[in-house]
Amino acid sequence: MVHYIDIVLSSPWMIHYISTARISKKGNYMTRFYDKIVLITGAASGIGKASAERIASEGGTVVCVDRQEQSVREAADAIVQSGGKATAMVCDITDQAAVNATIANTVEQYGKLNALCNIAGALRFDNTLEVKMEDFEKIMRINCFGTFMMCQAAIPHLLETKGFIVNMASTAALGAHAWTAAYSSSKGAVLALTKCLAVEYHLEGLNCNAICPAGVETPMVTAAAEQLPEGADMRLLTKVMSLDGSFAPASDVAGAVAFLACEDANFINGDYIRTDGGLLT
Ligand SMILES: NC(=O)c1ccc[n+]([C@@H]2O[C@H](COP(=O)([O-])OP(=O)(O)OC[C@H]3O[C@@H](n4cnc5c(N)ncnc54)[C@H](O)[C@@H]3O)[C@@H](O)[C@H]2O)c1
């Protein structure tokens, strides 16, 4: 007896769909990043640096990108010293010419790009009524426009490798964080951008997902915590942290970044992982 499902599966369209969209992306799960070129922004510090270390430790060649020249060189050097493959590139992701040159240099140097991890970002706390438009714009330029420009420059190369984009959003894009009108808006935009790219390019082989962390112990959070707005009610701060009020190490988020940047995430697209210890559950 011929079943409906057999007819569907043996149709030329379905055979083409299965072979081009999924089977071609299967990889060796034991050496996830072997022969993979992964560009990571924000790699001089915090989550970006931890993600570069994690992916390099799994065999990937990491292109560490940041605007902090000395720190990004030190981050890449430390990976190389411990036996990994890394190079540093200095780039301000709000500068489109620099973004385009960084992607072009990566592909020229390594011949391809397998994954782009947009981790660079900026945060500041302000009472909403006191937000200066120049500060709002600065946050949007880094978190949203910078992420977009990196994606735009990288996508043609990622389509050639059937690659992966991992964008750094935040629980601020999902829940509610006080005093972060600009930051929350920018991270909501990153999440919407992620879904847009996921649908627009998936049939051509790209996967695009996001991570939404809550409080992670990094220089960004330490600096912001020291600049809480005047009269801030500390009860509202618990929405930013974790269930037990602690901050997670950056390496806890790096594991999720690595997962979404390789074939383990073949069938995950346009989605996000909350790394928040259950805060928003
Ligand atoms: N730490 C947290 O609790 C937390 C929570 C949710 C989301 N995030 C997000 O994680 C990402 C990493 O943050 P982090 O906590 O590791 O902070 P971090 O300050 O340790 O690292 C951010 C990095 O981004 C770089 N950067 C900033 N602007 C840049 C630009 N214009 N061009 C190039 N590089 C630039 C900085 O130089 C820095 O190295 C950010 O997108 C942040 O919004 C962090």
Describe the protein in words.
The protein is an alpha/beta fold and 281 residues long. It has a single domain (34-275), classed as Rossmann fold. It is 44% helix and 13% strand. The protein has nine helices and seven strands; from the N terminus they run ααβαβαβαβαβαβααβ. A seven-stranded parallel β-sheet has the order 3-2-1-4-5-6-7, sandwiched between helices. Helix 6 links the parallel strand 4 (115-118) and strand 5. The longest helix is centred in the middle third of the chain and has 29 residues, at 133-161. It is globular. The termini are far apart. Mean pLDDT is 90; it is low at 1-29. It binds nicotinamide-adenine-dinucleotide. The site of nicotinamide-adenine-dinucleotide has 31 residues, from helix 3, helix 6 and helix 8.
Give the helices and strands, then pairings:
Layout: H1 4-10, H2 12-21, E1 37-41, H3 46-57, E2 61-66, H4 69-81, E3 85-90, H5 96-110, E4 115-118, H6 133-161, E5 164-168, H7 181-201, E6 207-213, H8 219-225, H9 250-260, E7 272-275
Parallel strand pairs: 1-2, 1-4, 2-3, 4-5, 5-6, 6-7
Helix pairs in contact: 3-4, 3-9, 5-6, 6-7
The protein binds nicotinamide-adenine-dinucleotide.
Nicotinamide-adenine-dinucleotide (NAD) is lined by residues 41-42, 44-48, 66-68, 91-94, 119-123, 142, 146, 168, 170, 213, 215-216, 218-221, 250.
